[in-house]
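Dear colleagues,

As part of the handover before I leave the project, I'm documenting each prediction I ran so the next person doesn't have to rerun anything. This entry is a single chain, and its sequence is reproduced below.
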Amino acid sequence: MKKAAVAAFALLAVLLASVLMPCALTAQDSSSPILGASSSANSGSDSHDLAKGKGGVEGKVMMRNSPVEDYTITFEEVEFNEENEMSLTGLKYTKEITSTSGEYAVQLSPGQYSAKAISTSKEVVTYPTTIKITEGQWNSGIDFQFVNSYSFHGNVSYSGMKLSGVNVSLTPIGENTKNVTQTDSDGHYQFNGLTGGVYELLFQKDGFADERQIIDIIVQPYFNTSMMRTGLPGINGFILEYDFQHSMMVVGLVGMIVMIAISLAVRYYLTRNPNMILNDDVKEKSEE
């Protein structure tokens, strides 16, 4: 009798478990997502947690179809007047990005922004349109593509001295786009963010002869040169290839040489004609 009661109780427990277990699993499925699965509320770019009163921008930065790991992303707020002319408001957001995938995501206050990415070699890529930031929404796919970025540099001198203020221009062969800079106090110049290829390099400074050079910046990423004088700035032909300081030195040196030559000539003449000195001595004594 007891065995029959235990068996009946066990059978009842099994029946209750088979009825209640599916209900529990269904309730669990509806209340929390399974690990590794994504619900509709957590999918897409809008799933990022945005701070109150903020909107978002996300994208990636590439160079030659490869991710850029280190760069700076900058957003500047802009506004438009009645003539649809754009101006900066002064609000600026800058962030340094380090990402092996080249991706970025930033949050901004609502408004209209211009955007640009800056590489470590100082190449700048500006997004072609302004970006509207709306509270609670993300702007996806704001991507930047750096061109093949190269640097080119060198030094300019004159008679072994560093030459500052030289206008240096670098123009791609067959194009009208000109990159211009000046040498600093150390005679150094540098260009960044260049595309690879052949360029015409031109050095210009008042009082100096222009110098041109054809350079393949991939093969030769630097070029040093020494410029030649054509005269004083604005006074060509004073003393060819000499500045004012050296010109005066030349004049002084020539004057000294002339004085020495005259002195030697007088000495030689007196040596050959000693009576002139004796006659002068006799004349002085007779006058006394």
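The CA atoms of residues 150 and 229 lie 32 Å apart. The longest strand covers residues 86-98.

All the best with the project,
I.
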